[in-house]
Amino acid sequence: MSQGESSARDVSGLRDLVVAGAPQIVADLSGLIRIPSVSWDGFNHAHLDASAARVAELFTATGLFGTVGVYRHGEGAPAVIARREPVGNAPTVVLYAHHDVQPPGEETQWDSPAFEPTVRDGRLYGRGSADDKAGIAVHLAALRALATHHAGDLRLGLVVFIEGEEENGSPSFAGFLHEHRELLRGEVIVVADSDNPSTEIPALTVSLRGNVTATLRVRTLNHAVHSGMFGGVLPDAMMAFVALAASFYDAQGGVAISGLEGVEQSTSGEAPKVGHEAPLAQGVSEVGRGSVPQRLWRSAALTITGMDIPSVAHASNTLLPEVSAKLSLRVPPGMSAGSALALLKDHITRQIRFGATWELHDVSLGEPFSLDPSGPVVGLAATALAKGFGAEAVYQGVGGSIPFISQLAEVFPQAQILVTGIEDPDTRAHSPNESLDLRVLWRAILSEAVLLSELNRREISDLAEVRALD
Q1: In this structure, what DSSP letter does residue 343 have?
Q2: Which of 169, 249, 335, 469 has the fewest Cβ atoms within 10 angstroms?
Q3: How many beta carbons lie within 10 A of that of residue 68, not counting itself?
Q4: Whether 131 is catalytic
Q5: Residue 115 CA to chain centroid, in angstroms?
Q6: What is the mean pLDDT of the chain?
Q7: Are 80 and 59 in contact, with CB atoms under 8 Å apart?
Q8: How confident is the model at residue 273 (pLDDT cuts 50, 70, 90)?
Q9: Active-site choice (10, 132, 163, 166)
Q10: pTM of the full predicted structure?
Q11: Of 10, 100, 165, 434, which is the active-site residue?
């Protein structure tokens, strides 16, 4: 039998196993969604412990791993590591996802409860249904199929790494990597935490923006005073903040902070993502200059994601002495997050008005990431995606940030990193009514199972030469 015939038989056999395992993996994913594992401060972190424990149980039950454990670094959130050693010179593949989720936001904006998984019109709704408990489900189901299909001849080394604080900026990630480096080492790393341009077309993400998050505090008065007696004479903190915030943007809505320009890159097959999923109100236009990929993937973006100010219901006729705002600055590939932070500070220093004082605190930096799409395993992964989805994969940039990927590349410089996705344009990750298209779930599972099956035939020395399946 030729390698091509063997590959076709693998795809058929693995597809049958994925279909047979579909009800169980939906049940397992639904159980994980029911655990409100929000990693942000102010939420009950006992749910993170419960989530990690359940993830460990699920991977232990596969019977594939020599060790499965829940680990922490210092005061960090719990992460799960499962490891199976390779046979002979077979490569080791690290499968990453995260079990923590974003806060649900306003429950009234959800059509069904955030932590009660609900299937409607072929989509599974619930916080974490896609980002990123679906990543856990893809790894789990692909491994179940792999274990059955290759019973008796599974040579591949396997590591499952399920982080518990990605949505909170991965504060202990770097230390965790160094502490558990030997458990996590591998030749290929698959990060299942990105998206696809549609439910039909798969993507490999080859660039990601970095991120600078910080809380900006602006103060103008020692205490609040009556707005009738002092308004028009004393500057309140909101006035100073609004003037500063306006200076962040130019007339077209692009970032007006000097020096925050992206580096032009070329990605073959890139697909712009702004379309029907962009919820523009009637009459509202896009912002910024250049093509959609240039603005989303290779340019800076600054968003004010929250503010500490009185609510409308509790507003009084006073001048505010202080306001605070949460800033999220997306950093284009080719620039360090530290450089972007320095440019932001310089801009605030030059643009703050009325002599207001300011400070940035709770600063977190995440570096951007870019991948050479001609890397030796990328073609292999693209072909596996094509077999799983029935459509050619595209190489794309993503405007979001996964800062730990650059840390993975630093700690494991010889590893080849693949960034795959489960989300689609209607997923609404981080928003109310987050959902997962179940067709994408099946296709992603089959794609990963095909990739792992092919790598199971390889030696470590083969990876430098491999480009695509026969």
Answers
A1: H
A2: 249
A3: 20
A4: no
A5: 20
A6: 92
A7: yes
A8: very low
A9: 166
A10: 0.82
A11: 100
